[in-house]
Amino acid sequence: MNNSIATLYNRMGFKLPYSVWKKTGESSTLEAIVNKSEMKPPAMENMRGTPIHTFQENDEQKVQFTYADDYHVFLVFTENRVVGEDELAVLFDFFYKGYAQFIDVTGRVKLAKIVDSIRYTTASLNLEDVFCNILTHTLEVITNADYGTLWLYDETKKKIVCKASQGYRYEEIRHMEFELGEGPVGHAFEVGTPVLITNPSDLKFGEVKHISKENKQRWGRRVEDITNIRSVIAYPIVVEDRIECVMYLGQMHSEHVLTDRDLWLLQIFTTQVGIAIRNAKQFANIRELNDALVQRDVIHARLTDLSVRNMGTEKMVEELSQMAGQSLVFIDLLMNEMIPAMAILPTGLSFSHLLQIIQKESQAKSIELNTKEGDVVYPIRSGSVVLGCLIAKSPQTLTRLGEVALEQGSAVLALERVQKQNVLAFYYKNQQQLFDELLYTNDPELLNEKAEALGIRNSEGFVVAMLQVTGCSDPQELEAHIFRLIAELRSAAGALVQTVFGWQNKVILLAGVTGTVELGFFERQLDEMLVYRADGRNDYVLHGGIGSLISSYSDIERSYREAEIALTNPLAGKVNHKLVRYTDIGISRLFTSRNTEEVSKFLSDVFQPLREIDRSGGMLEQTLLVYFEKNRSAGEAAETLHIHINTLYQRLKKIEEVLGLSLKNADDVLQLQLACYLCQRA
């Protein structure tokens, strides 16, 4: 990495000496990445929420890059120069690779801790011991938390009671009893969703503020009040589709507040915790299930070991097939891929059809398909986003061990696919940056270099197309839609697609086509995708625009701008859910979404006076529209309107008087004709 840093530093025009440092985790010391000049480590600035912060210290200039509370990079140099925003952005993205590696390593360490915690919690026959073990190992995984408590709903008392505590005196809080909806614990129990509080002042006004006077007194004077905290997570743990308990984690003394990343870890962890609680109940009630539950631990350890060692999804599916006693198929519904690669979809199903079935059964852990083979689908989700599924044969052929293997495998595969999704998102971001650089490059040599980096090959012709997803407010769902669109594009027109990537709510692709025949085929593929998604089965809307055919790299920027104009043109007939071709929109290309307001004002200036004076249901406006539709032929217009030609002339004269225009003046005629055109197209 040192050589990469030096190369980038020199290209950006910096001079020696300089040094690069990083701070990771809870360590209070800085680690030198590059420090050939033996410079002293910088002082860390407390700039929470600021990704890039520059400051001066002694005779040195310093830049602090903050990627998370537990990962910072510092650049120190003595040169007296101003670092521009673009340079800072390049440096920020450059050092991001180190952060990604740090997250990967720490994530795997925490995953290993989760494996250990599940092994311990399922080993006990005593439910109270299970609860204590859960908290102990939760605090090892969520290191920002100072203490934890576990709460269950007591059916006899109709209250939520504390069953275990770590980090606080259990005797001082075991007498607390919450109503449903009371405090963070009661709120999480009632609504079934996690509560994350990072600002204590929110407690005064939020839904979770109310805590009874009795509970505050029972909390004890010798410990902090339940509302006197820096951050809190109340996480409901679901067992067999019902909330079994709520885990309450608090942070008061540690440096870093609890974050969304902790929620994400708990999402994976509590799934296994729920399984552990259920296991303990089964052990308590039915001793003969002990052997099966021990096998559960073995299966989870084997699968997680494959994940930690990064053996890949294919090896994991192979291992699961052996455990289940039958050949399983994994279907990735983001990339439209199958593992094993030679597998085939169930009879009569496509990737999109299978996705719709799983989305319809949003809470189902398994879905029996109406196929001749009696296939069963085991969905793999991250929150509400469908990542894929495992497909097995009829459930009657599965042993108890096979059912456990599928249950455990689904959870581990979900983590595996989320990691791949994050890597893919980062790859598309890099592709977008390269493509932007290509658009703004005039140097032929550099243009060829960028094209090669994007995988663009020589072709007789090129064309840029752009698809846009609207109506999807969930960022995770939006990202999933974008990935699926790209997968379908590669499947439908893969031989023509030279580069494709997702950026925000758009898919941008460059196709290499040989003449109008291939261009027509490519456009039909895009049209079919748009029409398919216009049938009301989707919770979002898809629009598409395509530029004109070009012949060289240097014209890619022009085709891109044309696709953008076609996509954003409000008069291009989007209501028909067809691909908008730049070459077809004619004069409408002048009226993009950037000047829609001006178009509306222009139309209002022409037609509003007619509407105000016309008391007969739009007679004058209709007359004007038909008159220009018939190319100013008075006879044809009168016939279409079913009026005498003299009546037509009277109406036209009235229109001239109201608007202060003359149909004998060329400029006035052009203005009225354009207004009629825009009105009909809009």
Molecular structure report:
By secondary structure, the chain is α+β, with helices and mostly antiparallel strands. The strands form four sheets. A six-stranded antiparallel beta sheet has the order 8-7-6-11-10-9, sandwiched between helices. A hairpin with a 7-residue loop joins strand 14 (367-368) and strand 15. 46% of the residues lie in helices and 19% in strands.
Topology:
Elements: H1 2-11, E1 18-24, E2 31-34, E3 52-57, E4 60-68, E5 71-77, H2 85-121, H3 127-141, E6 147-154, E7 159-166, H4 170-173, E8 177-178, H5 183-191, E9 195-197, H6 213-219, E10 231-239, E11 242-251, H7 260-285, H8 290-308, H9 313-324, E12 329-332, E13 337-339, H10 351-360, E14 367-368, E15 376-382, E16 385-392, H11 400-439, H12 444-453, E17 461-470, H13 475-493, E18 497-503, E19 506-513, H14 515-532, E20 541-546, H15 556-568, E21 580-581, H16 596-613, H17 619-629, H18 634-641, H19 645-659, H20 666-681
Parallel strand pairs: 20-21
Antiparallel strand pairs: 1-2, 1-5, 3-4, 4-5, 6-7, 6-11, 7-8, 9-10, 10-11, 12-13, 12-16, 14-15, 15-16, 17-19, 17-20, 18-19
Protein name: GAF domain-containing protein
InterPro entries: CdaR-like_regulators, CdaR_GGDEF, GAF, GAF-like_dom_sf, PucR_C-HTH_dom, PucR_C-HTH_sf
Family: Belongs to the CdaR family.
